[in-house]
Amino acid sequence: MKNLQITADWILNNFSHTASCSGDGTVSIFCDFCDIKWNDLALEGITYEYGEEYQDEIGESEAEYYFNLTDIIEIAPTFYKKMMEINDSNANLKK
Predict the structure, then answer these.
(1) pLDDT tens across 38-82, in order?
(2) Is 30 left (phi over 0), alpha (psi -120 to 50) or beta?
C-alpha cells in the first residue's frame, strides 16, 4: 500500500477554492461544501475565523475562512508567497 503525504501547502494550492488577500494581511478563502474538511485540515493549528455556510446563487453550499497571512508562513510557504503578492498588490491600490 502506498502512503501519501498531504501538506497544508498542497491543499491550499491545489484544491478548488477562491482565495484573496485584502491588502491588510487578511486572507479569505471561499470553498464548496465538499472541501470544508480539507480546508479545516490545512488550517489546523492556526487561528482562523470560520464564516457561516451559505447557499450561492445556484443553490450550492459554500463556506468561508478568514485568517492572518503571517500565520501560514511555516505551514504553507508557497501559498503564503502567492497570497503575499496579492496582498501587496491590493495594498498598493489602496494608497
Answers:
(1) 988 999 889 888 876 667 677 777 888 999 999 999 999 999 999
(2) beta
